[in-house]
Amino acid sequence: MAVGVFDSGLGGLTVYDALTRRLPDVPFVYFGDNAHAPYGVRDADDIFKLTTAAVERLWEEGCDLVILACNTASAAALRRMQESWLPPGKRVLGVFVPLIEALTERDWGDNSPPREVAVKHVALFATPATVASRAFQRELAFRAIGVDVEAQACGGVVDAIEEGDMILAEALVRSHVDALKRKMPTPEAAVLGCTHYPLMEDVFQDALGAEVSVYSQASLVAESLAHYLGRHPQMKGKGEAAKFLTTGDPRRVSDRATQFLRRKITFEAA
Questions:
Q1: Residue 27 contacts by C-beta under 8 Å, 6 or more apart in sequence?
Q2: Cβ-count burial 125-154 (b if 16+ within 10 Å, e if not)
């Protein structure tokens, strides 16, 4: 009954942590493609190739359902995977839709036509590849009308977080928020469109101001998955063991992951 969780690096651990808290009886297999991180500066074909390879590895672990806990992979590869690559009996889900459902005040899985919503001005902070894909705007347009989205590519933030340089990460976040505010002075809501960014959520909130609602993905994805598995229990795969896999140096990745989650995490080579 294992479920796979994939990220290009360590940011997806924010989603993994929320998933395990919400679904403690489900064994999750986490795959971090640390050897090729960050994905945010790669082109769409490269991201697709790396993401499909990671998903296939998670299938080997008995995970018929895989969560792309990586906004860049969700933005650049998910639709192509779902339309032309997935074999029968397998499913891959992204992290954008649960967040957009929350932003547009929709129930889980509500596919009714787009309608006007309360929020009119939204700031999106994401990697360069996610911003270039316009996947967030596309998914939002399926659900809401009349929403102005201003996207800010946050170059360097993921690299700083992966290296554990939180001082640099904070400086970069504040710089990117300043750049966004020059384009959209008064956003009503801000979307943290990368699973690394919840680690800097307090900095984003402080830089944006208390009046801006900041949407982070981890708990929303966890709640959405719980509803999904309730509707599709057959998607729990045959895998039984929870584990952490990485394409990087397992010792180094384990040390960094332990710092991220503040509990002992042990990765093994993928």
A1: 1, 2, 3, 239, 240, 241, 242
A2: bbbbbbbbbebbeebbeebbeebebebbbb
For the stretch 203-242, pLDDT in tens is 999 999 999 999 988 889 999 999 999 999 989 888 889 9
Tally of CB atoms within 10 A around 241: 9
SS3 18: helix
pTM equals 0.88
Q: What is the pLDDT of residues 39-84, one digit of tens each?
A: 988 999 999 999 999 999 999 999 999 999 998 999 999 999 999 9
- Catalytic site residue from 169, 194, 208, 220: 194
Is residue 70 part of the annotated active site? The answer reads: yes
Q: Which of 54, 58, 70, 221 is catalytic?
A: 70
For the chain, domains (ranges, CATH) are: 3-95+218-269 (3.40.50.1860), 97-215 (3.40.50.1860)
Q: Is residue 63 flagged as an active site residue?
A: no
